[in-house]
Amino acid sequence: xxxxxxxxxxxxxxxxxxxxxxxxxxxxxxxxxxxxxxxxxxxxxxxxxxxxxxxxxxxxxxxxxxxxxxxx
Length: 72
Prior knowledge:
It contains three helices and no strands. The mean pLDDT is 86.
């Protein structure tokens, strides 16, 4: 899967591991955690609660950046 973005890869993982459809917004234009949160905030709008899908290495940083961006 080297030819797809990390977001598209995570989409495949989610779809492969759940039987129920999940409502999510795919943000696949960013290159950093900061860009990802910023771009996601722009796509989501006024929502203040999100679920971050990441690996152990990036999760703590993503959580802190999301908090600073106004997410709960």
